[in-house]
Amino acid sequence: MIDTPSQPQTATAKDPAKGHETIVVLDFGGQFAMLIARRVRELNTYCELLPFDVSSERIKGLDVRGIILSGGPNSVYDPDAPLAPDWVWESGLPVLGICYGMQLMAHQLGGKVGPGIEREFGPAMVQREHSAPLLDGLPGEFEVWMSHGDRLDAVPPGFTSYARSGNSPFAVMADLERGYYGLQFHPEVVHTPRGKDILRNFVQGVCGAEGTWTAGNFIEESIEAIRAQVGSAGVICGLSGGVDSAVAAALVHRAIGDQLTCIFVDNGLLRAGEAEEVVTTFRRNMHINLVHVEAEREFLSQLAEVTNPETKRVRIGNTFVRLFEREARAIEDARFLCQGTLYPDVIESGSHGKGASTIKTHHNVGGLPADMKLGLVEPLRYLFKDEVRRIGEALGLPEEMVWRHPFPGPGLAIRCIGEVTKEKLDILRLADRVVMDEIRDAGYYRDIWQSFAVLTDTKTVGVMGDFRTYGYAVAIRAVVADDAMTADWARLPHELLARISNRIVNEVHGVNRVVYDITPKPPGTIEWE
Ligand code: XMP
Which residue among 54, 197, 365, 374 is the one 20 to 30 A from 173 at the CA level? Predict the structure, then answer.
């Protein structure tokens, strides 16, 4: 298949990110760097995650109010330890160093960092010794999450220690005059319960950000930008049933109305009820021009006798592009393609974002041949997934669609192990619906990153009443994750699993056994194929 590479938007009237107070997070390779940026955004302040060695040119045009140095795997004494660039210290802006970022601050400003007696990892208590703006409203002792080897032995000139932990005499340090702060622990993770207050104190208290990064502002500014970009031209958008393309289309429709045409290639590989929901929401409720291509037969014939997961992906991808292109060419004056690209796809930093995982060839809706020469409209390229959901809600999309778990482009084909047939897909759809209904009813849907049924290619013996049965084994997969790079199996209550199992073997003809997948990622992947 041919991919349209993600490109910066062409002429925009006003970049929706540019007018807002911004916090810059410099990424030193820590696993939580992206999480820091998300936490700052939750405080309604725009935040960019940039590589640690970014030049000051890159932030020109942004209204930067403060800088955060992330954690990272290095020791400041490594010969190739990444350092904060000089412009950070010359900018006059407040700086918050977290973990490695704190050690770096100490190292670069004349303090002393030494190896910790032992690596400190996990929960710890921190005792406050003096008041500091960063700790406003926090109790004298609070719980934090530590993950560091080195520790501070002496703070740099001008700094004072504000709190200690069992292992670190300097758990919080600050030079109030220059607005420099260092935290030995991670305020961005949920295991630091008051971490959000600390980040709020930095972003709002120390940096003075007022919180203008809101769904309402974003929608208004995006509408202006989209109108300026596309003028009176037509825009096409591929809908997949997923949240990203749905929100992107709804936003573009709000901006340019009938100039937008959505194309929904229904591949017959969606979950129960999803295709109908797309058509009802977009055509009937939102009055968006929608081309509904019913192509189940075409996709299934391409998948006949295919068992290799990658071949399935390639066949599905190629079929999709062929059909999408045919429809797209028929739309007059279409000069732009709208895509639901998100911020993590365009992040420039080395350790996050683009291309990090090439274990499976993922195909995304919207790949088009280069000769179509369509400009790209990517209104969500500034946003994290949770922000996209908030925009979706503000645009009035149904809750079901906005909160839907991620769903792979090749759909149920890669959850139907072995050959994909209509009969097996129907069995899988019924089993999957039971999983969804039960997890929703039990109130776990939003806590879970993804949950679904897999139809294994294994038949097993069972007994029902007086009869021996020989039917498929269905596997249930439910994972918790912050992003799809790593995941852990969800510790669902046994009663819930029991209900799912009972209902599937009773209600889904052809299935007589249910198993629960207890493999984390790594070493497993989320999908089975
Ligand atoms: P894995 O299975 O690699 O999946 O742990 C990580 C995330 O990607 C989704 N996924 C896909 N998405 N096309 C997609 O658009 C694909 O071929 C594909 N394979 C996996 C998966 O559902 C999870 O969210």
Answer: 54
